[in-house]
Design goal:
Oligomer: heterodimer
Number of helices of chain B: 3
Mean pLDDT of chain A: 85
Distance between the termini of chain B: 98 Å
Order of helices and strands of chain B: HHEHEEE
Shape of chain B: elongated
Largest sheet of chain B: 4 strands, antiparallel
Number of strands of chain B: 4
Structural class of chain A: alpha+beta
Number of helices of chain A: 2
Structural class of chain B: alpha+beta
Strand content of chain A: 35-45%
Number of strands of chain A: 8
Largest sheet of chain A: 5 strands, antiparallel
Shape of chain A: elongated
Strand content of chain B: 15-25%
Radius of gyration of chain A: 29 Å
Low-confidence stretches of chain A: none
Order of helices and strands of chain A: HHEEEEEEEE
Number of domains of chain A: 2
Strand order of the largest sheet of chain B: 1-2-3-4
């Protein structure tokens, strides 16, 4: 007596299980790879903006020989001329020489420059964005135009 | 005739068995992909910096730049080793703020919440530690560690700076 071999055979069943498992694994891998932190793009944009600001400021400080620092204005003097950084109207602007100011960071709620007496050649910048969930920025730069 | 049928039956059964084994192996391999993928996810480098890591890098930069500025003002200055210290004034007030973060915003004992609540909250999770070493050739190595907690794990960012040590004090790590 021959056993009937049809669509319901064990091999076909296992093949179906394999296909389903392989499919679900691939879907899971795809889903995992898509997982990201909410607002990741916004966060990345902010970090990119801050990195650009820090790089610009580090370049300016590298050439600067002296500075005049106020609460919202910083003037860096170098052999090539002066560069002014300022907070105004919720923006951080940079103006090189007589050129028109360029907005580097916008949507700032509060920000400023600060110096301390034991370190005359050092200035710090801090800023707090309008968006309360966005990270503030704080870092410092030493003037290196005097051979540092 | 019966013998031929028997051979066919055996061959068919063997083919079925080998297909069965193949499918079982494939099933196991598919299941094994899951932990492998998890391992891959854990082990690969993060695609981008987190906000905490970025802030920690900027804080380490502050310390290095401050050391550079202090060295410029006093070429004999060498930063000392420090344990992990907060970088803003603690609410209990018992822990001393790192010397590299004192004097900011005109506050001798470090930034307080009343001075700038947003900045204080952002900087509060970080702690600063300084390690120093004398190296051969009259060099002095400073390593700035900024430590923080993220996703339940302690993380650390560090920056190094090589300074020239005054010959008069070589041999002792401050």
């Amino acid at each position: 007596m021959n056993m009937r071999r049809g669509i319901g055979s064990l091999e076909i069943l296992l093949l179906a299980i394999f296909v389903v498992m392989m499919g679900s694994t691939l879907v899971m891998v795809w889903q995992f790879s898509r997982i990201s932190v909410p607002n990741a793009q916004q966060e990345k944009d902010l970090i990119t903006t801050y990195e650009h600001t820090v790089n610009l400021m580090a370049n300016d400080a590298r050439k600067a020989r002296s500075m005049i620092a106020g609460r919202e204005i910083l003037r860096l003097e170098s052999d090539a001329g002066s560069i002014e950084w300022s907070f105004s109207g919720g923006n951080l602007r940079r103006a090189a020489g007589s050129a028109a100011p360029e907005t580097i960071v916008s949507n700032i709620r509060e920000g400023g420059f600060t110096t301390t007496s034991p370190t005359p050649g050092l200035f710090s910048i801090w800023l707090v964005p309008v968006d309360v969930s966005a990270m503030p920025l704080f870092t410092s730069f030493a003037l290196r135009g005097n051979g540092l | 005739m019966t013998r031929i049928d028997s051979h066919r039956s055996i061959r068919s059964r063997r083919r079925g068995e080998s297909l069965l084994e193949l499918l079982l192996a494939a099933c196991l391999m598919t299941v094994a992909l899951v932990p492998l993928f998890q391992l891959y996810r854990i082990s690969r480098a993060p695609e981008r910096k987190s906000e905490m890591e970025f802030t920690a890098t900027l804080l380490a930069r502050h310390v290095i730049e401050r050391i550079v500025a202090l060295r410029h003002a006093d070429p004999a200055y060498l930063p000392g080793m420090t344990p992990e210290e907060p970088i803003v004034a603690t609410t209990d007030g018992f822990q001393a703020v790192s010397e590299h973060f004192k004097g900011l915003f005109g506050r001798e004992n470090g930034l307080e919440k009343a001075d700038n609540a947003d900045l204080f909250t952002a900087l509060e999770p970080f702690r600063c530690r300084i390690d120093t070493y004398y190296l051969d050739g009259g060099y002095y190595k400073v390593i700035v560690y900024i430590q923080y907690m993220e996703s339940g794990r302690t993380k650390r960012v560090f920056l190094e700076r090589l300074l020239t040590a005054p010959t008069s004090i070589q041999g002792d790590t401050p």
